[in-house]
């Protein structure tokens, strides 16, 4: 049920008033808004196109838009503007850019792209469920598709993702970006303000993270004027830009929102220091003990340090792996920086041993150097961890095939690979039908420092892993480890990785 006017009405009226006072005619192409928004636009500006090209949801029909006569009509409309302010869909802008060498230079007026900045490059567009499903299947599978409708759609939409929350499921689409190439100015419809973090409010009904699918669900409901609950949102500093418009609009519309900095480290700190001590002493010696490591308590705010046991970190890594293995999507990837000699290898080796023993899963370690792989595997086997091996160009073809066969048969469960070896093979050819329990990127700073030019396979690791998780349905946490990683600011290694 609609509880109030659609959220953009006030801002649309202000935008039209702003341009009504200009001397030149204005063309506004609206990008990523809801049908209720578009259906109101004729009250404020003249539509460039023909209402016959709209689908039943009152959104632009791409196949109609591909009609050459309709495209010629659009060209005539923008080159001989009859109204002070005219508007069109962003999809029509894309169609025009195929017809005109420079829309900005050819249009008899000023051209702007008006972005629905409530969302972040991905929008719940009502292009029709059949089109959305076609795009989703195309962008989320490796199957080739020769559908002629798809050939039209990919001219306009560059990606498709599914947002799922309780009682909500929609496919979100991303646009092909044309206006930056044409040097056309883009403007945001909605204002935003900077905000301060506050303590969590116990009275709020829902606590979610800034990258939770529920956020996109609530954004969609908000733009339609529907009720959403009071919210607690946990976020990292890097999440601020993605939600500040949403938080601002919630405040303007009297929807209580409290923000607090996410600090997973404090949760890990008391997870369970001794839970996996028996695995440690079995393979690392009876006198082995977990070390205390120093970390920044909250690197988004200051340089205050706290100590966290290796045992707590091991417990967290195993926890995330178990969540993924059990089918939950509520698992987290981990990026960990610690000095050389602090025992980073133990943080993935012990979980790999435990997970292999309990679930018979494989842990894959992407490592940069042949000598490093060999040293770590020899050290592990010297402790009796015979389930570890490496595969690289330093071994013969026959030995490689023997080790791959033993991995698929369950004899090896901690496997060191170079990024080139991983990317040049299907994951099934390496692990067979076994589950991946953990993906480790050792020396993770090399993703950005080497990946750009020296070893490009590092750069493409993200695409490879995304395909495994999204298209192949394989779910596992990623653990990135490095002794050298700049966080925040220019040349941010952590966020780039």
Descriptive tags:
alpha/beta, five-stranded parallel sheet, elongated, 497 residues, 38% helix, six-stranded parallel sheet
Structural class per helix/strand content?
Answer: alpha/beta
The Rg value, from CA coordinates, equals: 27 Å
**Sheet with the most strands?**
6 strands, parallel
* CA distance, first residue to last residue: 43 Å
Strand content: 15-25%
Total beta strand runs:
18
Uncertain regions: pLDDT < 50 for 5+ in a row?
none
Per the principal axes of the C-alpha atoms, what is the gross shape?
Answer: elongated
Tally of DSSP helical segments: 22
Description:
With 497 residues, this protein is an alpha/beta fold. It contains 22 helices and 18 strands. The chain has helices spanning 9-20, 35-38, 62-65, 68-79, 90-99, 103-106, 129-139, 148-153, 213-223, 240-252, 264-269, 277-284, 310-325, 344-359, 370-382, 397-408, 419-423, 427-431, 446-449, 456-459, 461-471, 493-496, and strands at residues 26-31, 46-47, 85-89, 110-115, 157-165, 168-175, 185-188, 206-209, 231-235, 257-261, 292-296, 305-309, 334-337, 362-366, 388-391, 414-417, 436-441, 478-482. The strands form 5 sheets. Strands 13-18-17-14-16-15 form a 6-stranded parallel sheet, sandwiched between helices. A 5-stranded parallel sheet has the order 2-3-1-4-7. The protein has a 3-stranded parallel sheet with strand order 8-9-10, covered by helices on one side. Strand 15 (388-391), helix 16 (397-408) and strand 16 (414-417) form a beta-alpha-beta unit. Helix 4 packs across helix 5 and helix 13 (310-325) runs parallel beside helix 14. The longest helix has 16 residues, at 310-325. It is elongated. The two termini are 43 Å apart. The mean pLDDT is 83.
């Amino acid at each position: 049920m609609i509880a109030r006017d659609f959220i953009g009405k006030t801002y649309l009226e202000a935008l039209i008033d702003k341009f009504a006072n200009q001397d030149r005619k204005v063309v506004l192409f609206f990008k990523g808004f809801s049908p209720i928004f578009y259906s109101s636009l004729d009250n404020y500006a003249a539509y460039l196109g023909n209402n016959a090209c709209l689908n039943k949801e009152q959104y632009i029909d791409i196949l109609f838009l591909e009609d050459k006569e309709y495209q010629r009509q659009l060209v005539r409309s923008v080159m001989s503007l009859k109204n002070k302010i005219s508007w069109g869909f962003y999809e029509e802008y894309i169609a025009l850019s195929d017809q005109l060498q420079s829309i900005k230079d050819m249009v008899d007026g000023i051209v702007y792209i008006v972005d629905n900045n409530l969302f972040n490059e991905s929008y719940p567009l009502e292009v029709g469920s059949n089109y959305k499903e076609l795009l989703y299947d195309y962008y989320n599978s490796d199957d080739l598709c020769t559908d002629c409708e798809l050939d039209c759609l990919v001219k306009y939409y560059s990606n498709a993702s599914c947002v799922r929350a309780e009682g909500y499921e929609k496919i979100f689409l991303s646009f092909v970006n044309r206006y930056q190439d044409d040097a056309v100015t883009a403007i945001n419809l909605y204002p935003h303000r900077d905000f301060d973090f506050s303590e969590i409010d116990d009275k709020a009904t829902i606590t979610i993270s800034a990258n939770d699918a529920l956020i996109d669900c609530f954004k969609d409901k908000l733009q339609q004027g529907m009720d959403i609950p009071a919210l607690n949102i946990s976020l990292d500093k890097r999440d601020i830009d993605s939600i500040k418009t949403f938080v601002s609009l919630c405040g303007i519309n009297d929807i209580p929102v409290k923000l607090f900095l996410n600090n997973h480290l404090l949760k890990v700190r008391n997870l369970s220091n001794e839970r996996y001590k028996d695995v440690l002493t079995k393979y690392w010696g009876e006198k082995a003990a977990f070390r205390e490591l120093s970390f920044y308590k909250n690197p988004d705010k200051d340089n205050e340090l706290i100590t966290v046991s290796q045992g707590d970190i091991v417990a967290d890594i195993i926890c995330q792996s178990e969540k993924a293995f059990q089918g939950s999507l509520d698992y987290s990837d981990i990026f960990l920086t610690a000095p050389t000699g602090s025992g980073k290898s133990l943080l993935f080796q012990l979980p790999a041993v435990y997970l292999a023993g309990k679930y018979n899963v494989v842990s894959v370690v992407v490592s940069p150097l042949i000598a490093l792989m060999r040293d770590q595997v020899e050290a592990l086997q010297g402790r009796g961890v015979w389930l570890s091996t490496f595969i690289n160009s330093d071994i013969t073809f026959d030995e490689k095939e023997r080790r791959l066969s033993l991995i698929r048969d369950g004899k090896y469960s901690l496997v060191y690979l170079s990024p080139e070896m991983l990317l040049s093979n299907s994951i099934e050819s390496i692990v067979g039908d076994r589950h991946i329990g953990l993906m480790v990127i050792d020396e993770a700073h090399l993703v950005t420092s080497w990946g750009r030019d020296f070893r490009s396979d590092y750069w493409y690791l993200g695409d490879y892993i995304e395909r495994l998780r999204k298209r192949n349905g394989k779910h596992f946490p990623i653990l990135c480890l490095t002794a050298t990683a700049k966080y925040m600011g220019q040349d941010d290694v952590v966020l780039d990785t």
